[in-house]
Amino acid sequence: MTQRQPQPPQPPTPPSVRIDLLGPLEVRVDGRPVEIRGRLTRALLVRLVLERGRPVPTPRLVSDLWPDHRPTDPHEAMHSFVYALRRALEPARVPRSAPTLLVSEHAGYALRLGEDAADAWRFEAAVQEATRALGADRGVEAVRRLEAALALWRGPALDGFASRAWASRESARLETLRELAQECLREGAR
What we know:
Blueprint: E1 17-20, E2 26-29, E3 32-34, H1 39-50, E4 56-57, H2 58-65, H3 74-89, E5 102-105, E6 108-111, H4 119-135, H5 139-150, H6 165-188
Antiparallel strand pairs: 1-2, 2-3, 4-6, 5-6
Helix pairs in contact: 1-3, 4-5, 4-6, 5-6
């Protein structure tokens, strides 16, 4: 009789992550609030979320996080921020196992989130659905979707980050889309 070899433990299922950018930054992992400590660690998280899964080269992240005065070893500082984010976003990940959310890729980093992980993404999708509903003369559905979309807002878009060069355009775009949603809601409610 042959003995079976023990199977290596299966990696845990990636956690469910929600990142709210339509107001002050809020992060939830598996439904629980998670505090992301440190201004630059939070900035790195927001910077990666804005890329929607696309990798950002480390030199670009370094120049974005430290536009004026870089630390002595910015790559070492970046590694410590990445380490802190990985611990916060994947608390059950086995040490030294491959991360599933914040991954190293193409000499940089990418954040692999579900398509509805960020409130800004859900807002944008709901506004697009509402616009289609208005175009198809489904006003009640459009109003419902717009109300739900606008309810996601808790303050200014990218609050605390909008003045950074890498965030200002996206912040302005989201605020413009919010105004459009409010205008469409007024139209649909007539």
